[in-house]
Amino acid sequence: MNVDGAKILVLGLGNDILTDDAIGILVAREVRRRVAHLSDVDVRETMEMGLALLDFIVGYETLILVDAIQTGHAAPGHIHEITQQQLKSLPDRTPLGLAMPSRLKILAVEVADPFTFGTQMTAALQQALPIAVEKIVAEVNLA
Amino acid sequence: MKRPDMEQVVKDKFNQGSTRANTAYQMGRRRFTIDPITRLEGHGKIDIYLDEKGDVERAYLQVPELRGFEVFSLGRPAEDMPQITSRICGVCPTAHHMASTKCLDDLYQVEPTSPGRKIRELVYNTFMLEDHALHVFVLGGPDFIVGPEAPAAERNIIGVIGKVGLDAGKKVIATRKRLRELIAYFGGKVVHPVLGLPGGVSKPLKPEDLPEFKQLAKDGVEFAEWTLAVIKQIVLGNSNYVNMITSDAYTHKTCYMGMVDEDNKVNFYDGKLRVVDCTGKEIYKFAPQQYRDFVAEHVEPWSYMKFTYLKPRGWNGFTEGPDTSIYSVAPLARLNAADGMATPKAQAAYEEFYKTLGGKPVHHTLANHWARVIEMIQAAETMEKLLNDPEITSPEVRRIPTTVPREGVGVVEAPRGTLFHHYRTDERGCITMANMIVATANNAARIAMSVERAAKGLIKAGNVTEGLLNKVEMAFRAYDPCLGCATHSLPGHMPLLVKIYDRNRQLVQELRQD
Question: Which of B170, B190, B487 has the CB atom closest to A49's CB atom?
Answer without folding.
Answer: B487
